[in-house]
Here is the input.
Amino acid sequence: MADPTYPPLDTLKPIAPGIWIVDSGPFSAGLPLPVRMTVVRLAGGDVWLHSPTRFSEALRREIEAIGPIRHLVAPNIAHWTFLAEWQRRCSGATLWAPPELRRRMPVRRSGLRIDRDLGPDSPTEWAGDLGQTSVPGGFGFREIAFFHAVSGTLILTDLVLNLEPHKLPPYLRPLMRLAGATAPDGRAPLYLRFLVRLGGREASRAAAALVALAPRRVLFAHGAWFAHDATPALRRSLRWLIR
Here is the structure.
C-alpha cells in the first residue's frame, strides 16, 4: 500500500544550522497527504514552530532540548488544526496567525487563542533571524512565507505542493498530475492557484520577491521539498503567478 509520508515521523530532522523539520501524517484533507513542520532555533535561543504537526510529549521534549518553545505559527488559514494541543502544552508560547484566521467560524468554535497577527513585516521577536513576505489571495486566503537568511532557507506552506506519484494511491496519481501538484515540478493545486490569483499584482510581486531571495533550499508542508537547485525549482513552481 502506498505511503505518502516521509519516515521517520514525528521526530526532529536537522536541515541546516538552527533549522529542523518534523515529517508527519498522513493528514486527510479529502486525500491522504504528508505534512511537515519546520522548527527554527532563533539567535537568542527561543524555538519557533512553523505549521505545527500532531502533538506528542516525546516530540515536545525533543524540541525543548534545543530551546524553549516560544512561538507557534499558523502560516495560512488552513494550517491550524494541531495548534490547540501545542498551545495547551506550551503555555509560555505566543500563537501567531494571519488576521484572516481569527475570523473563521471553525477557529472561533475551537477555542483556539490567537495572540498576535502576522503582517507583511517580521516582528521584533524574530526580525533578526527570519524575514517574511505576505502572499494575499481571495476569499480570506493569505500565506506568510519566511526566509532564514543565514542558512538560505525559504519556508513555505501550501504555495508549493510537490507530491511524489509513487507515494500516492494509484487512483490519486492522475488527479494530482492534472492538478499540477506532483514532483518534480509541483505547484499549488488548481483551487489554490485560483484563490491566490485573486490577490492580483500584490500576489505576483510577492512571488517574484520570493524567487529573488535565491534560496538554497525551499521547505513546504506537503511533498518532496527542494533540497537542490532550489531557486530554479521555485521559479518553475511559481511560474503561474509571476507576471
About this structure: The longest strand covers residues 19-28. The radius of gyration is 17 Å. Helices lie at 57-64, 83-89, 105-110, 173-179, 190-197, 200-212, 230-237. The chain has one domain: 12-118+128-237.
